[in-house]
């Protein structure tokens, strides 16, 4: 009975704050039969949507834990107040606000703009649909205090999100995430609820009228090195936007590189928030997600498919082989191709490599690390996510390095320095131009990849995850991995228990361990990791004596224990066979999957 009364109070609070008739009606309907709908009310009202380094992302519906007008306004109020305290001259610098085509995206963007305008901020409000990288680009170009993009990227159609960039045009990282979250909690009472301000206020200006989109494509032209070859080539490309916003930007990218127009997948190139032809609008899902694109390519005798996710910050690529088989490249393979292409171009231009830097997330392929050692440039790993990659790339630039390329295995790529975030539009133009060069040499992209592997080793990956819906089981699994079966207190007090990691995984000896949860790294002098440590999530990396490197980590948003394994061998078959031994051991020995009732999932 107490629980029911508690949720009745939350219903009353929601209805007091919310001014949207649609979401008010949702909560009212649930509250009419509160006993029957208690689980649903708990889920929607019992917790608040969490603001983190990714901003906000959740299902669009009524509730404090969801994406809706109220939670967007509250987030904007907290962000606005935080900027006033932490960015000099924030009001005059202004904030950039963009949005994609998803349901409610335009409304959320307008309400966001209105909050900032109500405090006297200049707002650079895009009137048109934009791909996500244009928001950080505009922050950079116009000197904004921050940027906000309303998008849920490749999530299902019922989701939306609120992505935040700092004044350095990179995604926010700690301590800004927790600082903004704390400020949101202090500013929950809506002080403005007026969409019209976003368009009618003199403080609101369209950055497109300042020429930022033209400037963006001018900078993309600077990434092109073989325009004459591009204009002469008859290589055919098929493009899909996955029902997202990418098509007009992808077209202009091809124009910027002097490439002939691509062939669009007609049923997927226009923005459609219902994503009618794909259950999950994520080109990373492989051939299933690219089925219509493959069909279109076959009909038009095209050899290469390029695909953006719905907000066009990621890039997928498929290529038809002489056998007729379509190969969908992984993010690691695309990163290998683009990183190597970047290096080749620098060498062609006669540029020294000693101050060149490339980056990748720690769960991505180590190919660039091998390439760096062989060619004398700097390679650095970061934590997962372009928030870490972009900020570190900017730091390296400030130190005098030429940070020219970065990637993560989840098909995210930064080519050049146009944007310090993943950008599927600049990457697709760069890749298409390089494909022209390869085909002029008589090579396919797959041929080129194999030639790199023959030179530096065949890098084979095996990434997947286990479902575990019991948080206590996850804690017990990592406790046993970290402290052994019979945990004993640590003698030095640095860790709560003596670290007793496994000495062997399968038949291979463990030769290195980095634990970013407790802050241990066997490869540093003082055993302190160079990467940031966070006790709020589990993440351990193992190095084995056969050269395998793998990371196990928990997901911040799903009940998953993920693993990322890679091994380089003298052949792909040899590496894959050795890797399978390690993967089996991860499930059987580290996870004890059967004993812990873990559900195995194979990633596409």
Indicate how many domains the architecture comprises. 4
**Helix-and-strand structural type:** alpha/beta
Radius of gyration: 25 Å
Look up the CATH topology of the largest domain: Alpha-D-Glucose-1,6-Bisphosphate, Chain A, domain 3
Q: Helical residue percent? A: 25-40%
Strand content: 15-25%
**Biggest sheet character:** 8 strands, antiparallel
The coarse silhouette is: globular
Give the tally of β-strands.
23
Protein name: Phosphoglucomutase
Subcellular location: Cytoplasm
Family: Belongs to the phosphohexose mutase family.
Main location: cytoplasm
Topology:
Elements: H1 2-17, H2 21-32, H3 38-45, E1 56-59, H4 69-86, H5 90-93, E2 95-99, H6 105-118, E3 123-125, H7 134-142, E4 146-150, E5 159-165, H8 176-185, H9 197-200, E6 204-205, H10 212-221, H11 227-232, E7 237-240, H12 247-256, E8 263-264, H13 291-300, E9 304-308, E10 315-320, E11 326-328, H14 331-348, E12 356-361, H15 367-375, E13 378-382, H16 386-398, E14 402-408, E15 412-415, H17 424-441, H18 445-456, E16 458-467, H19 471-483, E17 504-505, E18 508-515, E19 520-521, E20 539-544, E21 549-554, E22 560-569, H20 572-590, E23 599-602
Parallel strand pairs: 2-3, 2-4, 3-6, 7-8, 7-9, 12-13, 12-14
Antiparallel strand pairs: 1-5, 4-5, 9-10, 10-11, 14-15, 16-22, 16-23, 17-18, 18-19, 18-20, 20-21, 21-22
Helix pairs in contact: 1-2, 1-3, 4-6, 4-8, 12-17, 14-18
């Amino acid at each position: 009975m107490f629980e029911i009364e508690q949720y009745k109070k939350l219903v009353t609070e929601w209805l007091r704050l919310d001014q949207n008739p649609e979401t008010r009606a949702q909560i009212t309907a649930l509250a009419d039969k509160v006993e029957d709908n208690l689980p649903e009310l708990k889920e929607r009202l019992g917790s608040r949507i969490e603001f983190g380094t990714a901003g906000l992302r959740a299902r669009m519906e009524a509730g404090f834990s969801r994406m809706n007008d109220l939670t967007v306004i509250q987030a904007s109020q907290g962000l606005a107040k935080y900027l006033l305290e932490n960015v000099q001259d924030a009001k005059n610098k202004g904030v950039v606000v963009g949005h994609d085509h998803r349901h409610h995206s335009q409304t959320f963007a307008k309400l966001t703009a209105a909050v900032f305008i109500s405090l006297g901020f200049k707002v650079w409000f895009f009137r048109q649909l934009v791909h996500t990288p244009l928001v950080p680009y505009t922050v950079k170009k116009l000197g904004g205090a921050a940027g906000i993009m309303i998008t849920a990227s490749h999530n299902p159609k019922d989701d939306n999100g609120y992505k935040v960039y700092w004044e350095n045009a990179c995604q926010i990282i700690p301590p800004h995430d927790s600082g903004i979250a704390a400020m949101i909690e202090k500013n929950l009472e809506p002080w403005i609820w007026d969409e019209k301000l976003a368009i009618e206020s003199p403080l609101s200006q369209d950055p497109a009228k300042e020429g930022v989109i033209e400037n963006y494509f001018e900078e993309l032209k600077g990434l092109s090195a073989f325009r004459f070859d591009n204009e002469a080539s008859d290589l055919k490309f098929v493009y899909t936007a996955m029902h997202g916003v990418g098509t007009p930007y992808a077209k202009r990218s091809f124009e910027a590189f002097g490439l002939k127009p691509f062939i669009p997948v007609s049923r997927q190139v226009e923005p459609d928030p219902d994503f009618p032809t794909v259950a999950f609008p994520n080109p990373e899902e492989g051939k299933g997600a690219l089925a219509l694109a493959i069909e279109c390519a076959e009909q038009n005798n095209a050899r290469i498919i390029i695909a953006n996710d719905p907000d066009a910050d990621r890039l997928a690529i498929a290529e038809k082989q002489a056998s007729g088989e379509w190969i969908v490249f992984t993010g690691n393979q695309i990163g290998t191709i683009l990183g190597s292409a970047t290096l080749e171009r620098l060498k062609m231009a006669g540029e020294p490599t000693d101050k060149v830097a490339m980056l990748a997330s720690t769960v991505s392929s180590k190919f660039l690390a091998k390439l760096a050692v062989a060619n004398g440039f700097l390679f650095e790993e970061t934590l997962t996510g372009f928030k870490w990659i972009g900020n570190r790339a900017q730091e390296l630039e400030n130190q005098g390095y030429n940070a020219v390329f970065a990637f993560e295995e989840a098909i995210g790529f930064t080519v050049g320095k146009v944007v310090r975030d993943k950008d599927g539009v600049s990457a697709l133009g760069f890749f298409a131009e390089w494909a022209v060069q390869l085909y002029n040499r008589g090579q396919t992209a797959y041929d080129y990849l194999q030639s790199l592997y023959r030179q530096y080793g065949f890098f084979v990956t095996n990434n997947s995850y286990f479902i575990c819906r019991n948080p206590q089981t996850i804690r017990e699994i990592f406790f046993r991995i970290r402290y052994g079966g019979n945990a004993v207190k640590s003698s030095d007090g640095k860790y709560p228990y003596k670290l007793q990691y496994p000495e062997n995984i399968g038949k291979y000896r463990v030769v290195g361990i980095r634990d970013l949860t407790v802050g241990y790294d066997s490869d540093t002098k003082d055993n302190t990791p160079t990467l940031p440590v966070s006790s709020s999530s589990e993440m351990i990396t193992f190095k084995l004596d056969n050269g395998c490197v793998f990371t196990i980590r928990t997901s911040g948003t799903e009940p998953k224990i993920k693993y990322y394994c890679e091994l380089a061998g003298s052949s792909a078959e040899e590496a894959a066979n050795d890797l399978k031994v390690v993967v089996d051991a991860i499930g059987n020995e580290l996870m004890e999957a059967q004993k812990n009732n873990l559900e195995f999932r194979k990633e596409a």
